[in-house]
Design goal:
374 residues, SH3 type barrels, 22% strand, extended
């Protein structure tokens, strides 16, 4: 009997000791004063995905799109302007507003909208719009890619290379994306649409960089059929006898065919001749002209509004970032060219005083001439 009691006592002490050791080991690896930050979890998951996306040669794939996350949050689109009492846009909580770069401004809006969506300060760039995509890509804050998703920040760089635009994806329906925006020198808030296949919506001066995925939300998959937008105005022939199809804008040009009543034609340009308006179109595989006066305009292609480029948030030539242009800035460029130190992207951008996309001694000379009023 005494032997049995001793055995039971030993087992009880052993189990308590083992449990204490296991608890201590867990506490050492999971300190109570280091709470889990949801943002940190997302960043770590994004980095892990990038590691898994490497091919056999160890080079990461160009796309950094993360797989769908189960249990994604619901999404409430913003299709109307925020009120002036909304602190995400109109208070010092928004870093752009705080330092005098408030709306209308695409960066202020997109940064505030991301803050509103996440409920916490976003890890997005606080610089000009054209730097946002590369900033996120280089720092690995969020996953990114070319597929539109709800809540994603869309990024463009203008063909000039020194400005751009950012907007937020609010809806994806029937192959069309709805963005919410603000524009420097333009509308404080507006929505715009574009085909899923062409986020720039035909604007050749807007070079689409990609989407920054600040989170995963319901209905982010693009499954709707893509729609095509006519590349010009659409006219429907209303003459019972149809109209002649000619090689040029005028009755002196040869007739190459006839276009029947009720046919729809996409007109890409027009000309006035002989008192008529002639439309240039393609019909039955041939291109030519017809009189639009005998047709009805049923669709008019909207001309994209060219908005004023976002104002740079820096003084060109101010390489040391002190807010003043001085001989020190010119010397700074010369030291970079002499390889005293490696230049940052900021120096490359601001130091390119002549705008030729090359940092050279000419930029330093031009700064010196500017200071000397030459």
């Amino acid at each position: 009997m005494k032997v049995i009691k001793r055995v039971l006592t030993f087992l009880l002490v052993f189990s308590v000791t083992a449990g204490t050791i296991a608890a201590a080991a867990y506490a050492a690896n999971h300190p109570a004063d280091d709470p889990v930050d949801p943002d940190t979890v997302m960043i770590d998951a994004s980095k892990s995905y990038r590691e898994e996306s490497k091919n056999s040669s160890g080079i990461s794939r160009e796309s950094n799109e993360s797989p769908a996350v189960s249990g994604a949050s619901s999404y409430s689109p913003r299709l109307s302007a925020p009120s002036y009492s909304n602190e995400y846009y109109y208070s010092d909580k928004n870093v752009f507003y705080k330092y005098g770069w408030g709306m209308p401004n695409c960066t202020c809006y997109a940064w505030g909208r991301a803050y509103e969506i996440l409920g916490r300060e976003p890890n997005l760039s606080v610089y000009s719009a054209y730097l946002w995509y590369d900033y996120n890509k280089e720092n690995g804050y969020y996953s990114y890619g070319q597929t539109p998703k709800l809540g994603a920040v869309a990024c463009w760089v203008y063909s000039s290379g020194t400005s751009g635009h950012v907007a937020v994806v609010e809806k994806i329906e029937n192959g069309t994306i709805t963005f919410s925006n603000s524009a420097w020198g333009g509308d404080e808030f507006y929505t715009s649409t574009a085909p899923v296949s062409d986020p720039s919506n035909g604007r050749s001066s807007w070079i689409f960089q990609g989407y920054i995925y600040i989170g995963e939300y319901e209905n982010t998959a693009v499954t709707e059929p893509q729609t095509t937008t006519p590349q010009g105005d659409v006219y429907r022939i209303t003459s019972d006898d149809g109209v002649n199809f000619r090689t040029g804008a005028g009755t002196g040009y040869s007739v190459i065919g006839a276009i029947a009543y009720g046919v729809d034609l996409v007109v890409t340009k027009t000309e006035r001749a002989e008192g008529y308006t002639w439309g240039y179109t393609t019909y039955n595989g041939r291109s030519g002209w017809f009189v639009t006066d005998f047709a009805k305009l049923i669709y008019q292609k909207t001309t994209p509004t060219v908005r004023q480029a976002e104002k740079p948030r820096y003084l060109m030539g101010d390489t040391d970032g002190d807010g003043f242009l001085s001989v020190i800035d010119a010397t700074h460029i010369q030291k970079v060219l002499a390889r005293y130190y490696t230049p940052t992207e900021y120096i490359y951008t601001v130091g390119d005083y002549d705008g030729d996309s090359v940092l050279s001694v000419i930029d330093a000379v031009m700064i010196q001439k500017h200071l000397a009023n030459i």
